[in-house]
Amino acid sequence: MHSSSDSRLVVTGAGGQLGRAVIARAPEALALGRGDLDITDPAAVRATLRPGDLVLNCAAYTAVDTAESNEAAAFAGNETGPAVLAAACAALGARLIHVSTDYVFDGHGTRPYEPDDPTGPTSVYGRSKLAGERAVRTLGEDGHIVRTAWVYTGDHGDFVATMRRLERERETVSVVNDQLGSPTYADDLAAGLLELAARVNSPGPQPLPAVLHATNAGQATWFELARAVFEEVGADPDRVRPCTSAEFPSPVRRPAYSVLSDRAWVAAGLTPLRDWRLALRDALRRVCG
Ligand SMILES: NC(=O)c1ccc[n+]([C@@H]2O[C@H](COP(=O)([O-])OP(=O)(O)OC[C@H]3O[C@@H](n4cnc5c(N)ncnc54)[C@H](OP(=O)(O)O)[C@@H]3O)[C@@H](O)[C@H]2O)c1
Fold it and tell me: Which residues, including other chains, have CB under 8 Å from residue 39's CB and lie 6 or more apart?
């Protein structure tokens, strides 16, 4: 068991959506974008990490649709990368917090998924992320996996940002109403991951399970999330129309049910993430000014 409150926090994938949110909250961390460190490069990873480091891996191959036809790239980023990080951490005596996804489940659930529920990914992306989880679990108590879902900042490229743009460009927008999940503000998730990092450095009385779930609380369909975005920007939410996934052909079967239970997170003494609707309001206030 480590107790290294002065250890370095090293954030890999620091140029991505979540990585940027983490660094905004922890500017003292060592921020490594893809150009600084390719996590699939064992020599570079070994040369960068030091004993006692706490690595927060936000790097991943996240192009869910493209992964179906580019399995090698998906598994390189999502299995080889975490495996290289885990091996370097094991060799150096460093710790690893790794971010994973609701896509490791099959999406047929009817109540929020617990961390130890059976997995059953239905996409290349989901299988590659599950393989990455298995690699991190080889680290034993020095490896922690946090699954999250439906992450957004609202400012660039994500679903919330896309709805803001479409609200300006179109009179009506059709959005799928048959997938249920927990929209998660990247800044809230970053705060949760940093609370976990502090706990990994200074273990408390409650044990930290190997796998945890962290999303904003509550649930919504993409349609409901889109309506909420319209409401928050002062537009008529009835301009958002419900449709089914079948109307949006995709190479990937996305999980119909993606809600993740935070019971283990709370039982570990970590602060639950607030309701998704309150988080969305804050996110849009921040990006809309
Ligand atoms: N976004 C979501 O809705 C969501 C949902 C559930 C779970 N997650 C998980 O949350 C984590 C963060 O995702 P995100 O939304 O921040 O994704 P993102 O914006 O795509 O960020 C991922 C970052 O990782 C970088 N990267 C890819 N391969 C790398 C490599 N080999 N070495 C170093 N960096 C590499 C990417 O660089 P390039 O851009 O140059 O490729 C990108 O900057 C991931 O583990 C993801 O699976 C996300």
Answer: 12, 13, 45, 57, 59, 77, 81, 82, 84, 85
Residue 33 confidence class, pLDDT cut points 50, 70, 90: very high
In the beta sheet, which residues pair with residue 221? 180
* Cα of 239 from ligand 1 centre, angstroms: 32
**Pocket residue to mutate for ligand 1, from 49, 62, 124, most atoms within 8 A of Cβ:** 62
- The CATH homologous superfamily to which domain 9-151+185-216+258-273 belongs is NAD(P)-binding Rossmann-like Domain (3.40.50.720)
Residue 1's pLDDT band, with cuts at 50, 70 and 90, is very low
Measure 161 CA to ligand 1 centroid, in angstroms: 17
Per domain, the residue ranges of the chain are 9-151+185-216+258-273
Confidence label for 168 from pLDDT (cuts 50, 70 and 90):
very high
Q: How far is CA 91 from CA 6, 48, 184, in A?
A: 20, 13, 34
Q: Is the CB of 81 under 6 A from ligand 1?
A: yes
Q: Which of 125, 152, 185, 257 is catalytic?
A: 125
